Amino acid sequence: MKVVIPFDAREPKTRLGPLFTDEERQEFARAMLHDVLETVTTTGHDPTVLATKPIKDDCLDVVIDDRPLNSAVNALLERIPEHVALVMADLPLMTEAALRKLLTVTSEVGIAPGRGGGTNALLVAHEEFRVDYHDVSYLDHLSVAAELNATVDVVDSYRLAVDIDEPSDLSEILIHGDGRSRDWLVERGFELDRSDGRVTAHRRSTPDQSPLDQH
Amino acid sequence: MKVVIPFDAREPKTRLGPLFTDEERQEFARAMLHDVLETVTTTGHDPTVLATKPIKDDCLDVVIDDRPLNSAVNALLERIPEHVALVMADLPLMTEAALRKLLTVTSEVGIAPGRGGGTNALLVAHEEFRVDYHDVSYLDHLSVAAELNATVDVVDSYRLAVDIDEPSDLSEILIHGDGRSRDWLVERGFELDRSDGRVTAHRRSTPDQSPLDQH
């Protein structure tokens, strides 16, 4: 099945700004995209990245569309008549099993909600279904499906529900992740901090300290 | 299967204090417990509430133990030799399907993680397994199982992952819930607020306004 992964290649993950430099935000967003792509490929499906500007990667199938997310996705849905899955690029905890839950939905629409009423992954098998990712998009997508009399399955998956938007989300990668985005965080000095009663991702101040400095 | 639901009947849900009166916290905690109990019962299983003080409900099987959570749960695990499920009382989004994911685990330990590395539900089929709910209990429980050479299944469920601890969690009930705790929130004037770019549960200032007042 065609799995489309929208990706903001211009200003990804702005809400992580307090923790990362601009370059780090780009790197980290690419690491998460890599994790998502790897899961899609390993599951035997065919990923297309829908990017806001060109991505340097010869191996990737990339469609460029610099319009806002809804317009770009809906234009793609019009061009692809068969079933399409839409998976966000910031779901590094997604496993093959979690993705399969979505891709094996037999209803006309499958929805994996994100935290706060977002929509993290969709399976679209109804040719008139269009997306609206703003606001409480999970409820909005249920309404769109209801207006079309489309059958719906809601996919219950924590690994699809955890999108990485804010500093407080990074601990989820350190706890549950095992891919490139976790490696990237660990290499940059992030570790779990349990000191203040809740778990956060804390960055050590000297991540690049060499062994010699420790004497 | 015996499903044990630990419940703090003394000071439940203290972190909801900014939104609720003390009496409301008690009521709301009981509403969530009711939703959990109903799902357990509907799924055909046998709930026991492990409460810190007596609960007025003749229909409930209640075990009283006023010790801290770990001690109370582990004492119970010692007394019950067969398989036991441990489900937290603040999981009002739990559906029959989500609970079945846990109860059909065939490994010696089943773990449904909560957000932030917590453990929201456990299936214990290894007689030496003991709980430790503090800190990043999800990772700790994986370690406990590894030390026992116990087989483990991690249950991937958003509905088991969402525990209701803080004001920001209430919107999840308004979005996904359909039980008594949702009704309770709606009756108390809570509604989704989409005004500041993210979705929150907002309480109207006059929840008890009568129809006459609206003229």
Largest sheet of chain A: 7 strands, mixed
Tell me the overall shape of chain A: globular
Continuous helix count of chain A: 7
**Largest interface, C-beta within 8 A:** A-B, 26 and 25 residues
Largest sheet, spatial ordering of strands of chain A: 3-2-1-4-6-5-7
Helix content of chain A: 25-40%
Low-pLDDT runs of chain A: 209-215
Oligomeric state as shown: homodimer
**Mean model confidence by pLDDT of chain A:** 92
Account of the 3D structure:
- Two copies of one chain form a homodimer.
- Chain A has 215 residues and is α/β, with parallel strands linked by helices.
- Chain A has helices spanning 22-42, 69-79, 96-103, 137-147, 158-161, 170-176, 180-187; strands spanning 2-7, 46-51, 62-64, 84-87, 109-113, 119-124, 152-154, 190-193, 200-203.
- Chain A has a seven-stranded mixed β-sheet, sandwiched between helices.
- In chain A, helix 1 runs antiparallel to helix 7.
- The longest helix of chain A has 21 residues, at 22-42.
- Chain A is globular, with a radius of gyration of 18 Å.
- Chain A starts with a strand and ends in a 12-residue tail after the last strand.
- The model of chain A is unreliable at 209-215 (pLDDT under 50).
- At the A-B interface, helix 3, helix 5 and helix 6 of A face helix 5 and helix 6 of B.
